[in-house]
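Methods: example folding runs. The two proteins below were folded one after another, and each record is reproduced exactly as written to the output file, sequence line first and structure-token line second.
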Amino acid sequence: TLELLDNVLHVKQQHSKFKLPTFNTNSFPTFPTTENKPQISLDSLSLIQNLKKISPAIDTNNPKFELNGALINIKNDSTDLVGTDTRRLAIATIAGDNAETLSLIVPKKAILEIQKLFLDQIDIYFDETNLIINNNNYYFFTRLINGKFPDYQRIIPTSTKHQITLPKKEMIDAIKMITTISQEIKMTLLSDSIVFNSLSADNVEAKTELKLKTGLNDKFEISYNSKYILDFISQINKNEFTMEFNEPTLPFIVKDDNFITIIMPIVA
């Protein structure tokens, strides 16, 4: 049973009893309404699916608050969803014409909750401070992050010297084998194989080789944090993905259709 006496809630059940203090209900913050608020006309299922792709790349405790959220950048001919932790930049693009251009930064925690709550079509509203999402079952709102997101277009390489197609499953197996020793990996690309070596300070070594025609004439070495590659691979559905690169010290790209991640290499 539940009973409220002098602002104390009494909860009783058979042999158990609890007394819980309560607060004035008028002190509870009011929910913003959707009345007279502009609506975002995006395919909501596509929005949720693509937010999931970039979520791992969003930072959590960055002193630059705008990096602790995802940028929803609505352009005339497409919408970019962008997340970064300064070591990698993830971008998922949703094709489609939009009547108006708009940029919003949504907190990472809110994005994770949206993915849990909404699995079907939703209505999305916004104002200067809030984003509101609802459907038949839930009414959800979050405060937007007030700030200027970095110019992510400037980070994307305009051209690349090399491009190879990599098998998803074999890459996962090879990388995970090395991560038993070290999360940081050196990948050596040869003409007919890829060699994976651990980067560990201790006298410990892990090495594995993947037989693959890379199309490269010269040996190419690049080192990276394996988590960034695995996070990308975990969000793609195809059996292959593309890797594009220039120099060992420059950012490289992993790509799958509308989803790319630009990764900063580890430079010795």
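Second run, written to the same file directly after the first:
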Amino acid sequence: MYLQSVKKNYLDPLINLEINECKNLDDYSVKKLFPGIYRGVPASYLEFPFKTKVILGHTLKDHLGLSVMINKNINDSSRKLFTQAHELGHIIMHQDFLRESFLDFEKDINEANSDMLEHEANWFAANLILPVQVAYTHVMEKHTAKQIRFFTGLSVQSTLFRLKNILKKVYWFQEESLIEQIVKQYSNCNHMSEVESSELYKIFHEGYKLPHIDSPNARSLVNNNSDLFKKLNQNIKLEKVASNNVINNINDVQHIIGLLYN
């Protein structure tokens, strides 16, 4: 509920602000938000060459107010953007924890330490830089992960991690090995034709907004003889609640699909 509130009150307005300025969703980019957005927080923003390359940035709250420092030695624009968005997440979500202290961002999105605050700030950054609808649009435009990086500024590694989360949260995939296989296949795509042939494209194209991957449409996306199809057929444990209905079997899924489209 907490993250849903953050998404509704902070993330979605920011995302919608940028979307409204785009002619097409694949033009979406928050790169121009930074560092100017910190002035509205308000927070001081500094880029300083840290002695270590391990720490990319930190946020500090003291008697002078909020300060964000970014390691000037970051030589990767994607990493810098993610760090800036990550520190903004700390400011929005974690001010109670910032008093007389600072929070560090040390590693990339899928390497963050186990600290919950760091995971939440990573969640904020990933959702801001690559919202679900933008990720969907890029895949539908047959863009590769490298092209998504070019448009959004999110690194290839973080893009792939984001796609894994979308498969989990939007399409409700439960089997980690299946998610890995789908995203790995997409990561190897170098051309539009390869993206169009990928399982990720098929899932996004045919199954978008379906309440669960175990719906008939989503299952039919994969070739009947493929390993993916066999794994999808095995993925019958429905663990989500939608429209106040507990999903227990395929009939429940079909019922909820009807509710969504009525």
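Comment on the second run: Strands lie at 44-48, 57-62, 65-71, 101-105, 241-242, 245-246.
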